[in-house]
């Protein structure tokens, strides 16, 4: 268990109210656990009813891909928490396809709704309250794969790239109101969604001209630190960004990938 204290014995996020999308498993579930351990009140959401969210957190079912889902979630946050100080936009993902032209229109739309517009809509509903209180912390979960897009995931990485750009712009807009907005970009992380997606990618019958899109398989040769990430590795970065330790950080992107994706 990770307990973050502020040096005076008080848990670091005591008194803070947090909303986590996709909080029922994988990275989101680790973020929920760490926020609770740091003393925050937490509302977690996912589409399916779940018994995996700790009892100390409140769970509400919602689909963040639609404006109706975002509105239901914002209303639940107001009702159960009385407002939100921390938002972690974690729900995301997409299925791989054989190549760019095999990605159907509806999956492009779905990828954009889940990986970009869900955050845009929810932020638009939650930031007015943060502006009034002149404080807030927002984290968007992107992907370390954004700078090196591959054909099976163009819908996914394009949506995440747009999310990162939006996140930086939102950070500029909201900084004068004391609201910090940052991005965490995970590399390959051992979660139910991540492993299922890599399995689908590995099983895809790659055509000869698509060999360069083959799913990477041997973690030791891919990740310089020699292992896949664990959900807690990503949650550690999220917790840092929403804590006062990051009080001078906004508009940043923290890549947590074991050194896999070289940048610049
Ligand atoms: N794992 C990796 O290797 C990896 C790498 C790079 C980036 N990421 C990013 O990290 C984030 C978390 O990934 P993960 O691997 O932990 O995913 P995961 O294991 O698939 O968990 C996804 C969570 O989001 C929820 N969710 C999915 N669609 C939703 C929707 N429309 N509305 C509300 N909740 C929804 C899921 O519950 P329900 O299905 O019940 O809704 C679940 O709680 C994603 O943004 C992903 O793109 C992951």
Give me some keywords for this one.
about 260 residues; alpha/beta; Rossmann fold; 7-stranded parallel beta sheet; globular; disordered N terminus; binds NADP nicotinamide-adenine-dinucleotide phosphate
Description:
By secondary structure, this protein is an alpha/beta fold. It has a single domain, classed as Rossmann fold. It has helices spanning 26-37, 67-81, 105-133, 154-174, 192-203, 219-222, 231-242, and strands at 17-21, 41-46, 58-61, 86-89, 136-141, 179-186, 253-256. Strands 3-2-1-4-5-6-7 form a seven-stranded parallel β-sheet, with helices on both faces. α1 packs across α7 (231-242), α2 (67-81) packs parallel to α3 (105-133) and α3 (105-133) packs parallel to α4. The longest helix is centred in the middle third of the chain and has 29 residues, at 105-133. The relative contact order is 0.15. Mean pLDDT is 92; it is low at 1-5. NADP nicotinamide-adenine-dinucleotide phosphate is lined by residues 21-28, 45-48, 63-65, 90-93, 114, 141, 143, 186, 188-189, 191-194. Residues 208-228 are annotated as: Disordered.
